[in-house]
Design brief:
Shape: globular
Distance between the termini: 29 Å
Oligomer: single chain
Number of strands: 19
CATH superfamily of the largest domain: Type I PLP-dependent aspartate aminotransferase-like (Major domain)
Helix content: 40-55%
Radius of gyration: 28 Å
Structural class: alpha/beta
CATH class of the largest domain: Alpha Beta
Length: 549
């Protein structure tokens, strides 16, 4: 279809949504107070509707802290209701609200996760230390080359701190899509030693939607003990749509992470949702030297009395018998003595039993548990200075102690209720249609080339004569690269005309290194954007290109 006809057809389709878009846009004070503003940086932070701002103003005036007295009962209820509402919004099938905790943002949640898992894996590795040193076996964390830095740097840092950990990056295909062949190969080769795979539901850079269902199927088949972590920051707002797109009822992940400021909510508030199989590793709530000693004594006594622990152990390759300080095995004749050695201590026997039972660092055992990283006030059951230990009420190890961001938390209930009142499916399809219209209008310009469907982006970039190139763009994103650092110049030019966009590497340096460009310019749309705004932006790009090239 000729480009002009395609643009005209899309324009007609967009006109059908005019009333819907007008009603949606009318709810945002930032647009009312700045009628000339064209906000196309929604992937970074969404605007806030009046309903959320009203909730903030109302509850900000409430006195006191949460969970303190009858006077703050209503404040506590509002926060608890928001907690439940967000939990149900992200995972409709999850009835356990305690599986979700609030954090400062997505980055905070991912760093907290890395710290917690790192401590747990390090303790688990101590029981495999001998075999790890002998075999030089590594355990792996898998990430994608297009991950946001928040979902890269914590894992890079963690692997640098522990010799037994290694980071493996799944490279992008030449068309910048997810490399399933590489992913499946890595799971086949290292499935028994993959600890975590951490990806995005929707890529921050260009809106690419990862097929999470297929990823989860491969993980379950080839690396069943590995944990799956999903950075859902870009997918949180239209969470139900992305679940439907993946043919899923809920996310098949052990950790789901996101931020409220990507959901038309306030900044300073993120979430971390944990699966049931991970929560099983959090039942021990006593900490300190005395508590640890008591645990060891209890399990030692049980082991010496019964020969096993509460959970079914993997049997050792051969049982050891000790008679008169001489060691025999079932595989040897009792008349044939092995090399005489010292009789093992009770603790050594116990540690040996654990070595037989832990084959993977995500395996459950009765000494090591996921522990809170930030402790203090908020969920303490008891503290003993005499025995130097403490116990906690909360069994979710990612709960953060201390006074939380109450002012933002009081808006969560309203935020989620407001989202659910919006015709989100219609708004999603409208915005996707607007993205297609944006690209169709771009292609009417003389200086623009379309590389969205190219099979080798990096190679083609430097063979393209036209200076403005449309890179693979999905959903509500339009990603451009312009020769001679033109994207930086264009971003500044647009800002002077009240158009907000994002220029740079978008916290995805490896992506840009893959295609060998210094920066890109990203337009990320929302349902309050309209056809007239896109037309104005196209005219500005045309004016810029005529002067710049």
């Amino acid at each position: 279809m000729p480009q002009d006809l395609k643009t005209k057809k899309l324009s007609t389709q967009l006109d059908q949504y005019k009333e819907l878009v007008t009603n949606f846009a009318s709810q945002f004070p930032a647009l009312k107070h700045n009628p000339d503003l064209i906000y196309l940086d929604n992937a970074a932070t969404s605007l806030r509707p009046q309903a959320v701002l009203d909730a903030f103003s109302t509850y900000y005036a409430y006195p006191g802290n949460v969970e303190r007295s009858l006077l703050t009962k209503e404040l506590s209820q509002v926060i608890n209701q928001g907690h439940q509402a967000l939990s149900n919004y992200i995972d409709p099938k999850n009835n356990n609200k305690d599986s979700l905790v609030f954090t400062q943002n997505t980055t905070d949640a991912l760093n907290l996760l890395a710290l917690t898992l790192g401590q747990f894996w390090a303790k688990q590795a101590q029981h495999l230390e001998t075999s790890l040193k002998r075999t030089k076996q590594k355990f792996y964390i898998l990430v994608n080359e297009s991950n946001h830095h928040a979902n890269l740097l914590p894992w890079i840092k963690l692997c640098a701190n522990f010799d037994f950990l290694e980071l493996i990056t799944i490279p992008l295909n030449k068309d910048l899509s997810f490399d399933f062949k590489c992913f499946e190969m890595l799971c086949t080769l290292h499935g028994d030693h993959i600890l975590l795979m951490s990806f995005s539901t929707v890529d921050n850079i260009n809106g690419y939607t990862l097929p999470i269902k297929r990823i989860a199927q491969i993980q379950k088949q080839l690396a069943p003990k590995a944990w799956l972590c999903l950075d859902n920051a870009q997918g949180s707002c239209f969470n139900a749509h992305y679940l439907q797109e993946n043919l899923l009822e809920n996310w098949p992940a052990d950790f789901v992470i996101g931020s409220l400021h990507k959901m038309y909510g306030l900044t300073g508030l993120g979430y971390l949702m944990v699966s049931e199989r991970v929560l099983k590793l959090t039942t021990m709530q006593n900490f300190g030297l005395s508590a640890q000693a008591t645990a060891i004594d209890n399990y030692l006594a049980q082991y010496l009395e019964t020969g096993n622990l509460d959970y079914p152990p993997s049997p050792p390759p051969s049982k050891t018998k000790v008679e008169n300080n001489e060691v025999y095995t079932d595989l040897e004749s009792s008349t044939k003595k092995t090399k005489k050695r010292k009789k093992p201590t009770k603790l050594e026997l116990f540690e040996q039993s654990l070595q037989y039972q832990i084959n993977h660092l995500n395996d459950f055992n009765q000494l090591h548990f996921l522990e809170h990283q930030w402790v203090g006030g908020g969920f303490v059951k008891n503290v003993s200075l005499k025995e130097a230990n403490y116990s906690l009420h909360d069994n979710n190890p990612f709960t953060v102690a201390g006074t939380s961001n109450i002012n933002a938390l009081t808006t969560v209930k309203t935020n989620i209720e407001w989202l659910k009142e919006q015709p989100l499916e219609e708004l999603y399809h409208y915005t996707n249609l607007l993205q297609q219209y944006f690209i169709a209008k771009l292609l009417t310009l003389d200086n623009v080339s379309d590389l969205r469907y190219n099979q080798d982006i990096a190679r083609t970039l430097y063979r393209t004569a036209k200076p403005i190139r449309i890179l693979p763009s999905y959903g509500h994103h339009v990603l451009l690269t312009i020769e001679d650092s033109g994207d930086v110049e264009l971003g500044q030019f647009l800002a002077k005309h009240q158009v907000a966009v994002r220029v740079g590497k978008h916290c995805v340096y490896p992506f840009h290194r893959t295609i060998d460009v210094d920066s890109t310019i990203r337009f990320s749309l929302a349902p309050f954007n309209n056809k007239e705004q896109i037309d104005k932006v196209i005219e500005l790009i045309k004016e810029f290109s005529e002067d710049f090239f």
